[in-house]
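Me: I keep going back and forth on a fold encoding question. No explanation is needed for now; the record alone will do.

Assistant:
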Amino acid sequence: MGRVADSNRELADFLRRARAQVDPARAGLPPDGRVRRVPGLRREEVARLAGVSADYYARLEQGRRIVPSAAVVAAIGRALELDAAGRAHLADLIGLTAKPVRQSARSVQRVRPGLYQLLDALDGEPALILGRRTDILAANRMARALFADFDRLPAAQRNYARWMFLDEDARSLFVDWPDQARAAVESLRFEVGRDPGDRATVELVAELREHSREFGQWWEQHRVHQRTHGSKRLRHPLVGDLTVEYETLTLPGDPDTTLFVYTTEDGSPSRRAMNLLASWAASAPVER
């Protein structure tokens, strides 16, 4: 019952904040002469655009126990101008998405020996394996050299979002730290939609809200982002400035685990910096 209530609260908050971000003129709504006391669309306007009754949408936004059809969810997503991540998050919160089968929602995630071998095989490129709530499950030698030696952190602190906000070295490493940190918040928000009542996630969010003003501000905006690919600009203390591109792969048979691989453009200054970092990392001992 508690997890249902958590999901309903998340849904209500997401819908309110999403409609506040929609420009009525861009949505094709003509001026009606009424004064808008808050930004964005009114509830009845979202309902009109989605083709449902105002009462139905109001009950949905209030977190009532109703389950719209996939067609209605899609129509609401269009009315709110949600991107792919936003539409997926909405489907998660409403309950249309099939939840992954887990032996235990709170079980400790483990990395298979074969995945460690895969990380070692990618030794020329930084690679990370992230689990639920952006927990860092494993990192190869190049990832530890590029970002941080996560293996030296206590197990409970090996979390990407936590490192991003609470470690001063992370703030100085990323040239575009605000963009990367905001993306980490939005990715964590996306994850919460899959399991709003997960205790470890709730505790992580509470810790970050307590210790980081930026996290709290961005968390309240309830924007979501699903990391599939992108770039990061770094100012590394050993090799200087470089830009890395990343691609992600959700591992077959384990939808809660994602592989991140970071590369640089061949022949670029970033590639030369990465080669220099690789030479330095080659002398560092491998630790598990």
User: Anything to note?
Assistant: The longest strand covers residues 240-250. The beta strands are 127-130, 136-139, 229-236, 240-250, 258-263. Confidence is low (pLDDT under 50) at residues 101-105.
